[in-house]
Amino acid sequence: MKHYLLLIATGLIGTLSLQARQGIETTSDTTHSFSAQDAVQYAMANNVQVKNSLLAIQLQQETNRQITASAYPHLNASISNTINPNVATQVIPNFISPATYQVLIDKGVKDGNGNPITMPAEFGFVAAQFGTRFSANAAVSLSQLLFDGQVFVGLQARDASIAFAKKGSELTSEVIKANVLKIYYQLLAGRTQLELLDSTIAFVNKNLSDTRILYANGFREKLDIDRVNVQLTNLQTERNKVMNLLSNGYYGLKVLMGMPTADQLVLTDTLTPTQVKEGMLETMEYRYEDRKEFQYAQIGKQLGEYNIKRYQLSKIPTIALSGVYAKNAQRNQWNFLKGNQNWFTISNVSLNMTIPLFNGFVTRSRISQTRIELQRTLNEIEGLKRTIDSEAGSARNNFQSAIARLDAQQQNLQLAEAVYTQVKKKYELGVGSQTEINIAQNEWKAAQTNYVSALSDAMMARIDWLKAIGKL
């Protein structure tokens, strides 16, 4: 925001409505006639920072959906098919031969020499292959978290997380709104300055015409005409300077609003002392809770408390339910799709409890860490209260001072105009001098500049006061 203000401050105020008034050609046929509130609404819909802050809310919503998903059943299906070009061979003790010998011994069978058969001391090993060339498996698995303290705290914190993201978006919007209003009214003040310059130029043109008539009749010197011409040139130069500042300012406002710079912008509001003072300073009271920064910090405190609770509940057991239902088959030929072949069923249901016993004091450290972070948030809230007090007090003083300055400059402008008018009448009657007119005209021009500056400062102070008390 500071970069935006710096950009706009270099240009002060804007141009495109003046282009429409002065007949200057524009590069776009799109015209926007905006009041101050229209400009704010347009910025809320098109400013990049505001749009990104709204996307942050959507991101938090998706994060919440992921947390919620942890509490839902998880269902998965799997299909696998395995080909064993070479079935693994296992060497196992020869358990077949001992059984055979035992049968022969039990039956009393004798060998060829007529001796009873006896059990050999060693039978060796047998190489065997277990499995088939092809195997297939189809399964469905279900898992359901029954109890996990951390997940349940996450579910409880969902609303606070969304509120935190929304409040952050509101903070961004408030800053953009304040800046749009400030630049908008600076533009109006610049337009007022231009109108006053035009009025002064008209007066000087009339003075130049009268001086030429008096010169033609022998009542004035050629030097008097030259002096008026110098004044007129200076005024026109000043007008061109203001026009350039207005042009740059309009570009800055459109960038802040998110409007294409080629579009034409017409400001429909006016800026008057009555508008600046309307409904203001009726009460000097304010509440911390009205400031969005304070609301944002309070939600941050709530989230910090949830964080402590989350780690505390991580020390209690978690319970989960899981189950599997599967079919598998083994073949030496790939004929799993034939209906006359056997598929074997596998199923199981498990109830699992995980009991945390010792994790190297990590949980204790995390709880301590979150407590420290929460305390830091509480300290920041106390600091924010003092900051709000200071901002509200300064804004109130600045606004009261700005209104007093505006009243004084408004009266001074009227007085300077009256003085110039009287001096000009004296000059026309031949009892005044060109020097008196020059002095009166310079004083009038200075009064105009001071009045416009005071009018702009008063509106800026009004916006700052509204923002300081959370009423913008």
Structure write-up:
Helix 7 runs antiparallel to helix 10 (292-313) and helix 7 runs antiparallel to helix 12 (434-468). The model is unreliable at 1-26 (pLDDT under 50). The protein is an alpha+beta fold and 472 residues long. The strands form three sheets. The chain has a four-stranded antiparallel β-sheet. 23% of the residues are buried. The chain has twelve helices and eight strands.
Radius of gyration: 44 Å
Shape: elongated
Q: In the CATH scheme, what's the topology name?
A: Outer membrane efflux proteins (OEP)
pLDDT < 50 stretches: 1-26
State the strand order across the main sheet.
2-5-7-8
**Structural class assignment:** alpha+beta
Fourth-tier CATH superfamily name: Outer membrane efflux proteins (OEP)
Overall pLDDT score: 86
- Number of strand segments: 8
N- to C-terminal separation?
17 Å
How many H/I helices?
12
Helix amount, in percent?
55-70%
Tell me the number of structural domains.
1
Query: Per DSSP, what share of the residues sits in E-state strands of 2 or more residues?
Result: 5-15%
**The CATH architecture:** Up-down Bundle
Characterize this entry briefly.
The chain has 472 residues and is an alpha+beta fold. The chain has helices at 2-11, 16-22, 36-46, 48-69, 96-107, 149-156, 158-216, 222-257, 273-277, 292-313, 362-428, 434-468, and strands at residues 31-34, 74-83, 89-93, 125-129, 134-147, 264-267, 318-331, 344-354.
